[in-house]
Amino acid sequence: MTHVQERLRPHSTPSDRTDLAHLHRDMLRIRMFEDRAAALYRDGVIRGFVHLSVGQEAVPVGTAAALRPDDVITSTHRGHGHVLAKGLDLSGAFAELFGREAGTNRGRGGSMHIADPALGIFGANGIVGAGVPIAAGAATAAMLRQDGKVAVSFFGDGATSTGAFHEGATLAGDWRLPLILLCENNQFSEFSSTHLKAPGLMEARAAAYGMSFHRLDGNDVVAMADAMEDIVAAVRRGEGPAFVEAVTFRARGHYEGDPLKYRDAELAAAWAERDPILLAETRLRAGGTSEAEIASVHASVTEEIEQAVAAAMAGQEPSAGSLFEYVRTPPKPVVEPALPADAEPVRYSRAVKAALRRELERDPSVFVAGIDVGEGGNVFGLTRGLAADFPGRVRDTPIAESAIVGAGVGAAMAGMRPVMEIMYSDFVAVCLDQIMNQAAKLRYMTGGKVSVPLTIRTQFGAGRSSGAQHSQAIEALLAHIPGLQVVMPSTPADAYGLLRSAIQEDSPVVVIEHRLLYEKTGPGFAPDHVVPIGKAKVLREGTDATVVSVSRMARDSLAVAESLAAEGISVEVVDLRTVAPIDWETVLGSLAKTNRLVIAQEAVLDFGIGAEIAARAVDEGFWTLDAPVLRVGAPFTPAPYAPVLEKEWVVGQRDIEDAIRRILAV
Q1: Distance CA 188, CA 227 (A)
Q2: Rounded CA separation 46/54 (Å)
Q3: Of 298, 313, 328, which residue sits at a domain end?
Q4: Please, which pLDDT band fits residue 484 given cuts at 50, 70 and 90?
Q5: CA angle (168 as vertex; 89, 193 as ends), nearest 5
């Protein structure tokens, strides 16, 4: 027995509250599923990575016994046991591992990403620890709705070192969420023994987050079920989040094919004597169950597994033509109204606030969260007063960007429409996993079973000596991510209309505002004003050259075009408004009209959206070009701090005008 086992409270008799026979059968289903999966992987039927949880079956089964069908779980790359215990169909699970269309996720997720949101399974996850903030988001939805649901996030002991874990746990503690963080301490973090970690570390972490702590025998399904019934009930009553350390053992390697050279044979033998199924069957015998009855259960589950494998193998593979399905939800039809002629001019910052207020009033599933958006009213004062007007729905968060976005992902999956603020666009780098690998991919990886109606608001802008970490334009980075939409409004009316459309959209949208535009004014708009995502706008008609730009550069381009008009130069200005997806019809249509193209971006020139537009212009618009495509952008350096250097770095009207004159001279 290990030093960890010695600290566990023994459970020698079944509880009256638990149906041991039922728990035993559920563990057998998981064990036999994974044994069969191992053989099929060995035989080349299952492709990709497979991580098995053999030896850990008591943890998910004991936990699931305490959950309601509508409670939520998030899982890990080693998640078969969790999802099967929560009710996932065996045949669908096998078909998913086989990459079949009949798979739980239509073959788009595979072993590491298996999910079924209809069963409260918000996804296994290939990113260690990433499910913790998502579970916190599901718990946030439950708290705001007061519907009595709880969320459980399963993770391994190795995940407790990740930033996502710490940020999610911090948010859960601060908001007192109905969340259970369940660590399966299976003695190994990939290839490293967890005995190398300081003893008592899990308990100390729980205390730091203000959570109750419970160390359970993860190989004793009765102990797990009994304890989890009490823990879940307390969390459901509103007593705050809990941290559970279920001490168990990973009987197989980190992955199938792992040579296990790091494994201590004596340790493995000691844990084999406490195999959870062996312990359960010993109890069953002690309670009067015969060998024949136990054998009958084995035979029944074996038959169930084989029938599921056969059904899954008979399924069709996805058609090649379905490659582009489920990347995002179908766009909602949006008709942009004309701006009223008699409307008072509006400041950009007021338009943003008005859009948030309008959507908070219109839809009770909308909430706003971020650093200092509540009492502080946002670093620029954009949300000031909203927290008082919408109690509980405009929420301050810890300084934890991964938790902010991850909670938005989980809440969106739970049916809310969160608007999560990242204070500066530079800070997107801190939470890029939750944007790129979670929000943007979950609809695809679930085969269309889930929508993620998440809006992420952020801002950027150089010119005020904010330095390299508070100035950069990163729209090209975000636009490169399939499943993500990115909008960059240049006018108050567009800021209002695009933000409202983003909040109403069923796929994730990043709204990037320009802080130097916040106090700029523009034509007013009606309260029902909306702007379609993915639709550019021609700000000025022209015949000699086209300038395609976005955000502040669109305003600068318009100013240049109006100045050049005095010289008889006719410039057409296209404001993209959305950089993902780009409105190619408008861009290429304008090029066909003027035969010359300049692209202006505030971001560094190399590898930016201008390069993509230029490539598409040369490809699809080649025969309409009368001159080379020119790009305007910042030099390929970080944004400098010194005013004299920043003035040299920031692009503006003079650069745009020079490019237009150059292209007209060809």
Answers
A1: 24
A2: 17
A3: 313
A4: very high
A5: 75
In a domain, 340, yes or no: no
Contact call for residues 259 and 191 (beta carbons, < 8 A): no
Torsion angles phi and psi, residue 631, rounded to 5: -120, 145
Q: pLDDT-based confidence at 198, cuts 50/70/90?
A: low
Catalytic residue list contains 195: no
Residue 319 forms part of a structural domain: no
Give the tens place of pLDDT for each residue, 642-651: 999 999 999 9
Catalytic residue among 24, 470, 514, 529: 470
pLDDT tens digits for range 157-170: 888 889 999 999 99
Q: Are residues 490 and 616 in the same domain?
A: no
pLDDT digits (tens, 9 = 90+) for 542-555: 999 999 999 999 99
For residue 249, pLDDT beyond 90: no
Q: Per this entry, what is the length of the chain?
A: 666
Instruction: Count CB atoms within 10 A of the CB of residue 385.
Output: 12
| CA dist 99 → 93, 449, 451, 580 (Å) | 10, 16, 21, 29
| Same domain membership, residue 242 and residue 159 | yes
How far, in Å, CA of 89 to CA of 488, rounded?
43
Residue at 493: amino acid letter = A
- Phi, psi torsion values for 135, nearest 5 degrees: -65, -35
pLDDT bracket for residue 621 (50, 70, 90): very high
